[in-house]
Amino acid sequence: MTAFHTALAVTLLLLATLMGLGLNLQLSGRTPDHRQQGRQRGPPRRVHHVLYFLVTLGTLASGTLALFSHLVWWPFVPPLALLLGMSRTRPGTPAHWRLALLTSVVCGGVTWWAW
């Protein structure tokens, strides 16, 4: 397994964990947004942010490894743009989880295609 494939696999695993935690936060009524009244802060919020950062970094690393391995790198641009656009939506809202779902489908599709 090459470094490129390892980065893809780890990023996909982190993305699945991020989506699972986000779904758990959404269904439990908690959200990682500290600005909403009555919402809890704490470890789930921090873990959610760390996972988001790692998925974004993994997507960037996968695209960079593809570039330096003389593979097609441009399919990693849309998922990276979607990931960076997540901060434009308010956590806990339908716009946030819809964009998260779209992002995970695009990331999964690119990973499947690139594998």
Summarize the structure.
The chain has four helices and no strands. With 115 residues, the chain is mainly alpha-helical.
Write the layout of secondary structure elements.
Elements lengths: L2 H26 L14 H26 L8 H9 L8 H21 L1
Helix pairs in contact: 1-2, 1-4, 2-3, 3-4
Can you tell me about this structure?
- This protein has helices spanning about 5-30, 45-70, 75-85, 95-115.
- With about 120 residues, the protein is mainly α.
- The longest helix has 26 residues, at about 5-30.
- The chain is elongated.
- About 25% of the residues are buried.
Number of helices: 4
Characterize the biggest β-sheet: none
Number of strands: 0
| Average pLDDT, all residues | 89
Low-confidence stretches: none
Q: Give the N-to-C terminal Cα separation.
A: 11 Å
Helix content: over 70%
Beta-sheet strand percentage? Answer: under 5%
Key attributes of the depicted protein:
71% helix, 4 helices, mainly alpha, 115 residues, single chain
